[in-house]
Amino acid sequence: ETKIWRVAPHNFSIDELQEAAQLIREGKLVAFPTETVYGLGANALDVQAVQGIFRAKGRPSDNPLIVHIASLDELTPLVSDFPPMAQKMAKLFWPGPLTMILPASNQVPAEVTAGLSTVAIRMPSHPVARELIRSAQVPIAAPSANRSGKPSPTTAGHVRQDLWGRVDGLVDGGECTVGLESTVVDVTGDHPVILRPGGITREMLSIHFEGVEVDGEPSVTKAISERPSEATTEHCLLETNGEAASPDSSAPRSPGMKYAHYAPKAPVYLLTGSWKEQVQAITVLLEKETDPLGLLISAETYEHIKHLLPQECGSKYQVRLAGSREDLRSVAYRLFGSLRSFDETPVTAIIAESYPREGIGMALMNRLTKAAGGRIWRE
Ligand code: TXA
Ligand code: MG
């Protein structure tokens, strides 16, 4: 049985979260909204509760969890060091969609860190998340509230689809505004290393910090500029995201990056090249493709190809407007919901538009590439 509480994210009283907070304190599982995606929360200091998270999600136990806090005082017992660079980053970007990898204290269960010496910490900005943590009076360990492998949930409805009956409670606080998971930054070294791109972009970090690195990024530039032939493109694309492209490639620094992710039921294929080339590719495909297809495209692309779509309803094409190329945050925020929505349709493949890897575009392309499992659309 999953208990649901509906709360208006900007107009709720503390009382409305009392029961949910109490369940967390008792070691139960409660899903809740954050500004990025919904989290599946449990008391981070309760080993059995944390084990419950892995069971409910079907998550491999070697993939560590993010610990969510509501104020900086809660950080102190969780870490063995809070270096100046991390303090500065917290001042600039917390609360918000940023997770810092810090040296763990011995208070943090190995179930949370998957046995690593570091712990991932985030202070979310969502008012419901903050109040839930505050009222639970314990730090909350929370991965995204999806079954492992599926797109992360950006509405309570998505959480219901995946975890109904598998969790004790669900706080429904409406839609998540960022729509992609937090940026994970390793701040244990001399300069920040982005392990997972997200809402806080490399550009935003680079304004304040020198030598910001993106894990897996140097090979990207190399892979793209030295791309020898069409045939290797697929392989290059896999590498661009710091994913394990082949079994012998070195272990990713963020354990979660090696798993299949965000996959709807039908295979996703990414379009590549300039926007014009992508529009051209869709045009060609609409002229000859006969299978039911899903199209995840920008408003701009839709304008160019809509005259090619059959007018009758129940057409074999399922179009999802991803947002505008002029505003990649609008695309980011719809991505996971759009991917999920194809599961209720008979499409046998999903063709997705690509975007520039700048700003939020880097996180967007990271998730899209994973959803596609590196597949590229070729005629
Ligand atoms: O936006 C978010 O971050 C959401 C919301 C709920 O806060 N949470 C989320 O958690 O996306 P999850 O478990 O789906 O992703 C956590 C990521 C994984 O890639 C994991 O490997 C990485 O953070 N991670 C956790 N602890 C780590 C550590 N000590 N060192 C390196 N990576 C770590
Ligand atoms: Mg996740």
UniProtKB/TrEMBL annotation:
Keywords: ATP-binding, Cytoplasm, Nucleotide-binding, Nucleotidyltransferase, Transferase, tRNA processing. It is found in: Cytoplasm. Residues 14-200 form the YrdC-like domain. Its EC number is 2.7.7.87. SUPFAM superfamilies: YrdC/RibB. InterPro entries: DHBP_synth_RibB-like_a/b_dom, Sua5-like_dom, Sua5/YwlC_C, Sua5_C, T(6)A37_SUA5, TC-AMP_synthase_SUA5. It comes from the Bacteria. It catalyses: L-threonine + hydrogencarbonate + ATP = L-threonylcarbamoyladenylate + diphosphate + H2O. The keyword Nucleotide-binding applies. Belongs to the SUA5 family. Required for the formation of a threonylcarbamoyl group on adenosine at position 37 (t(6)A37) in tRNAs that read codons beginning with adenine. This is Threonylcarbamoyl-AMP synthase. It comes from Heliobacterium chlorum.
